[in-house]
Each structure stands twice: as structure tokens, then as C-alpha cells.
Amino acid sequence: xxxxxxxxxxxxxxxxxxxxxxxxxxxxxxxxxxxxxxxxxxxxxxxxxxxxxxxxxxxxxxxxxxxxxxxxxxxxxxxxxxxxxxxxxxxxxxxxxxxxxxxxxxxxxxxxxxxxxxxxxxxxxxxxxxxxxxxxxxxxxxxxxxxxxxxxxxxxxxxxxxxxxxxxxxxxxxxxxxxxxxxxxxxxxxxxxxxxxxxxxxxxxxxxxxxxxxxxxxxxxxxxxxxxxxxxxxxxxxxxxxxxxxxxxxxxxxxxxxxxxxxxxxxxxxxxxxxxxxxxxxxxxxxxxxxxxxxxxxxxxxxxxxxxxxxxxxxxxxxxxxxxxxxxxxxxxxxxxxxxxxxxxxxxxxxxxxxxxxxxxxxxxxxxxxxxxxxxxxxxxxxxxxxxxxxxxxxxxxxxxxxxxxxxxxxxxxxxxxxxxxxxxxxxxxxxxxxxxxxxxxxxxxxxxxxxxxxxxxxxxxxxxxxxxxxxxxxxxxxxxxxxxxxxxxxxxxxxxxxxxxxxxxxxxxxxxxxxxxxxxxxxxxxxxxxxxxxxxxxxxxxxxxxxxxxxxxxxxxxxxxxxxxxxxxxxxxxxxxxxxxxxxxxxxxxxxxxxxxxxxxxxxxxxxxxxxxxxxxxxxxxxxxxxxxxxxxxxxxxxxxxxxxxxxxxxxxxxxxxxxxxxxxxxxxxxxxxxxxxxxxxxxxxxxxxxxxxxxxxxxxxxxxxxxxxxxxxxxxxxxxxxxxxxxxxxxxxxxxxxxxxxxxxxxxxxxxxxxxxxxxxxxxxxxxxxxxxxxxxx
Length: 780
Known about the structure:
Structural class: alpha/beta
Distance between the termini: 75 Å
CATH superfamily of the domain at 566-777: DNA methylase specificity domains
Low-confidence stretches: 291-296
CATH topology of the domain at 566-777: Adenine-n6-DNA-methyltransferase TaqI, Chain A, domain 2
Strand content: 15-25%
CATH architecture of the domain at 566-777: Alpha-Beta Complex
Largest sheet: 9 strands, mixed
Radius of gyration: 32 Å
Number of strands: 28
Helix content: 25-40%
CATH class of the domain at 566-777: Alpha Beta
Shape: globular
């Protein structure tokens, strides 16, 4: 076989990259789906198809690439050429090979790919029909990408050519591309705070110029700036071009920026669509990974913006405002929803962008990015203003039907607080208008906001509060957040119950610093929308309840606990037993020493009821309880005040428990003589809030923990203690630094005592106790 030139190999690398972007595993079968030119000998039935297919017609020839099914049936033939001007030959050869597959009864697409990243890449994909080879299209234009596995199934099964829409690549693919882009900008000495603007400028310039950016270092930066300026002038916002401008004197960037252009071209950045948010998600994902947070912005994930638009039920007639719009995620979500519901024409969509989507953003770069985002969806007309919503003279008081926003969390005393944004957003709404706003969870739970919550409900109604996933804004911010939905102009009536939801799974999970699709596909967003709009109660997930003025709005206060089945409890108990044994193995020597000191009365250990004052004993016994709850089987009290300041304790031989999740709650070994006799349960109030452990060694307990003591006269063994600790741990989502874990708030948790479950747990306990005893015996 004739050796390939280096340029041909570079084109083949481009093909592999395009396949990866579209989600193909390009390793060879059975792991992947791609067979390359030198691999056909391993597949005799495929070699037979291409026998005698050389250009001369007398020898064998094989496609550069062949995508096959799981059963090794040909599906796409790909031919690659080094020069983009040779695209016609590439597709012609691909069609010849695909026709050979068709002759054997296999519906096979033909794809020609020509060119290289610096000179430009051309892609043509065709399907054979009764009237010959026809291009696969998106709308009226031929596609410029390789179909996905899902799209391929549709194309092969359809009788005629069908339309395809581009996909948003997987988060890990975008992250990899963004890392490459970030590296190029960093090596060109572009500061962090300017990188979002540079990437935004390149995207907008590619769109405005329809890809006609010269990649020669002499012209490329000027072409980018000129195209951006032209786009903003068309949008009648020429001043914003100053914020999305590249330094043309940066010679190092001029020499390397073509690589960024090439990466964006491969990601189909030139495709514009109203019926999905391909560009928007791609656009903001880059800013998240290329330093978008350096300008003080933490972008709302697109699926959460859409969730809020769905709850507020926006449509093509709804005037939507975002008073702190960032790059326009909420406005795009409303546009996307309107398009899907009404199947708007291009002209109608453009008018909606201009007239029904209103945004304010005071930060210059972010405002420019937002306007650019709108330009990408129309002819340049937009209702986005670079202005401060609190001082803007054209602020639309009483003119909007929905307000959607995620205001910047205050970083200093001069920043606007969440309640000010709530009030300002409400001002823009007409009567019965709906507000959806993301706020710190502390805002809905802390007592300091109680007067404000009481006052705001004098003229407005609380419709719903949804607690968002803890990791939603990671790895950029770790704030826990909730969404508040309110109706303007109607005094809150507690009889009209408010809905509360805990959205734990939004379809994504954090992996290596990137939120990617969950392997189990769990996504509770549709159920959350249904529970809010239809006021459904699903234990552990949603609930409805009356809210009095001044009450907390935390979902954890109103959602009933889910019934815990044996499988869930056994799994949680198993984890607790493993943590307990980690403590025994880690501290076997110290435990043996403490046992010795207790046996010689050098350290005191006695039941906690003998240590507690009469007042504290009385308080713990006065908590109201219901049958089959934690409070019905346990007296709940706080830990020892003498251990409040642990830092001042001298080292010693006594075990001290604190609000930590390490080693069964072990803080360390200190000089302290008033230990509590086991067994009992400790629960962290601060630190690792809600972490509960069963204590089986005498210990002192810091008063940032609460202690569960089996009620006197009840036969409660170790198994029941582990069930109680597991139950509390499974409900710890209800608590945070704004909403404290207190005895009253855990007393109503369900407490199951099924005999079969207890028997199973006792067997586990005995097995682990053997390990613990063996560890201690080494030091006794």
C-alpha cells in the first residue's frame, strides 16, 4: 500500500476528531465501530465487498474509513483528501464504495471530508435514493458534519432523505476543546478576564462572516474584529464592539488563533437554529471552561434555565425579562420553549427576540456576550441593554408577564442583595405575573430574612420553592441554591398551599470537575415540573403545605419523609458499619488504652442521664412525638458544653466526638474524664451536618452534636441504633448552615423496627464486631 503523505495523515486525524465530536467510538470492533484502510484483512466479508474496486477496476481497494454496525454491517463510507479543493473526488470515491455496499444489500451513506484545520475543512454527506445520490440536509442546507449513531439509524431506516439537526457534543468533548482553546490563549499571554471576550469575538465573527475569516496571521485578528464590529453595528449597538475586541498587536495570538477558529468550525459553530439551543449551550459551555467565572459570572446551566421557563409556562406571547441576564441563558430558554410550542417562522422568532425578550446586564463584557448570543439567533435586533436594572431609565415597570433570573450573589457590602433583585424583578411584572429566581438556600431559611419574607407576602404569593442539586454550579461555585416561584399582586393566602420540591438528580453528575450525563439516566426535572404545577406530594421528593407569613421557605421543612425500604436501610447500615470498623482499626491502640484506663478508674464513664442537668433532661423529654418515629424511641439532647471549645483541650487518653465524618465522628484523644457510656447515636449539627454514627465506646461528645439516647424501659438494641443513625443520614439533605439540625426537626423522622430487618443487621454487626475485636486484641 502506498505510504500516506503527512498532510493526508493530518486530514485523517481531522476525521477522527469529527467522529469523536459526534459521539463515535473510533476504535476498531468489537469495542468501537470504525474500520480503517489497513484493517480489512481481519474482516473477510467486508474485503469481499470491495474486491476489484480499485480505480483501474482490476484490483482491490478499500475505503479510508468504514463505520459499521454491531454486526459488522457497513453503514457509512468515509473518504478523506488532504486538500479542501479535492472534496468532489472525496465524495465521488465514497459514493463508489458505498454503492458496492448497496449492491450487497447494505444501506450505506457516503461521506467525503477534505482539507486540514489551517486551510479549511469541507464535509459532504450523501444518501442514495431512487433518484440518485442526495445530500443529507439541515433545513435547506447540506449538513457539514458526520451523523451521530442515533441519526444514522434514522437515515438508514427511512425511505427518503430526512432532515438532521446538529447535536451539542458531550460535556467531556467540549471540556477537552475548551482546554485546548484556553491553552492557546494562555500561551499567547491573554489574561484570564479577557478570554471569554476573545472566544465570544471569534464565535460572533465566524457567524457574521459565514466562516470567511482569513487564517493568515497578517489578517486574521483584523478580520475577527471587523466582523464583530459589523455584527454589533447591524444590531444598532456599536459601542459593545469595544468589549468584544481582540488585541491586534498580539503577534503570538495572530500566529496561533487559526487553531481556535478550526476547533470552532469542527464544532459546527456556524449553524443557527431556533428549535434547539445548540449554539447557546456550546457558547456558554466555553465560557464556563475558558474562564467565564473570572468576570464574576456563574452561568445558569441551560437545562435549569429551561426548567424554570417550563414552570413559568412561557410562550410566544409572553414578555420575559431577566434584570441580570448574564449571557442570556434564561431569555434563550424562553425563546426555545416558544419555538417548540408554536413552531414559529424565522421572522416570528426574530421579532420575539426583539420585542418579547428583555435583558439588563451592567458588566460590559458579559453584556456584549449576551447581545452576541441574541445576534446569533436573528438579524441583529435585540431587547438586551447594557445597563443596570436598578438605575435604567427604560426599565419596563409593570409590562412583563414573566421574570426569570439568577442574580449575582453579593460579594461585598455594596453589592445588591437577593431581596433587592426579587423586588426589582417584581416591579417589572404586571398583576399575576410570575417570577422565577435562583437564590442562596440561606435566603429561604435564615431567621434574619424572616421579616422580609413576611413583608413580601403582603402583596405577592409564594407558589413554590425548589431546592436545586448541591453540585449544580460546581466546580465553579459550591453555593447551595433554591428556586423561588412567586405570583405578583396577589396577597399570599396560606390556604392556597405552596409546593416544595427537592431536585436531587437533574440528569447530570460531577466527574473529574465536569458535570456529565448520569450513567443511570436519572433525571427528576420532569417530575419536578409536574409536582410544582399540579401540587403533588411525593414523600422524599415533593410536598404541599400552608406557609404563614414569616415562616421559612425551605423545602426540607415541608416535604414528608420517604418510606425507607429494607434495601436502602441495609445499604446505609453497611456503610456505617464499615466506617465504625475504620475507627476501630485506625485507633485500636488508643481504644485498648482507654478501656484499660476506664477499668482502673483513671477515666470516668457513666450514662448520659446522670451527667445531664434536670432541666436538660426535662427538655429532651418534652419534645412531642408520634408513634413509629425517632422521637418515640429516643430522648434527644445536645452534647457536652464542657467540650464546646475543643481546641483548648490538652492531649490525653479519652475519645472525643465532634461534627466530623471522619472515623465514626472521632475528633481525637484528649484529657477529659466525664465520658458517656455507650451505646447511643451522635448526629453532627455543624460541620458535616447530619452525619450520624453509632457510638460503641465511651466518649465525650461536643455540643455541636446531638445525642440520641434510647428511652428508658424500651428494648432498643444496636441494630435499632444503626437504623436510627441511617435514617437521619438519609434525611440530612434537609439541613444546612442556614437551617440547623435540631432535636425537634429530627424527632418526627420515621423509625422502622421490622424483625426481619433487625435480624439481618444483627448478623452484619456480629461479623464486623469480630474484626473490631481482633484489631483491639493486638494491643490489649
